[in-house]
Design brief:
- It is a single chain.
- With 124 residues, the chain is mainly α.
- It has one domain.
- It is built from 4 helices and no strands.
């Protein structure tokens, strides 16, 4: 599994999602750019991870921002749904998409970290 490439693609998807939400929402609220706040560090740390000596560091940084990208939208979606005020519109669609993209990335990171650890233990 080429995790730096997966991280780069995830970062690009989140940044594109932010631009879609911002431009599609009439550029009224900067909060539409929140997916880019997770996507840019994932992209940059994944680029860092392309260096074999920085792979572990870069991917752990990317995974941390992936976790934030998964949890942050839930902090708004869940309370809204509990209150009964949930509406499916562009902003909520972007939040759900951000959470899903980040969750998929996190699952891939965990699988990769687990495989790397197993390979390292076999090499001992």
């Amino acid at each position: 599994m080429n995790m730096p490439k997966i991280g780069i693609n995830t970062g690009i998807i989140l940044i594109a999602l932010a631009l879609l939400g911002y431009l599609g929402g009439g550029m009224e609220s900067w909060t539409a750019l929140i997916p880019a706040i997770a996507g840019a560090p994932i992209l940059l740390s994944s680029l860092l991870a392309k260096n074999p000596n920085k792979l572990k560091l870069g991917m752990h940084i990317a995974a941390t921002f992936g976790l934030l990208g998964f949890l942050a939208p839930l902090g708004r979606i869940i309370p809204t749904a509990i209150k009964g005020d949930f509406e499916l519109k562009l902003s909520t669609g972007c939040m759900i998409t951000m959470s899903l993209v980040s969750a998929i990335f996190m699952v891939q990171c965990i699988k990769s970290f687990k495989a790397a650890r197993q390979a390292r233990l076999k090499g001992l």
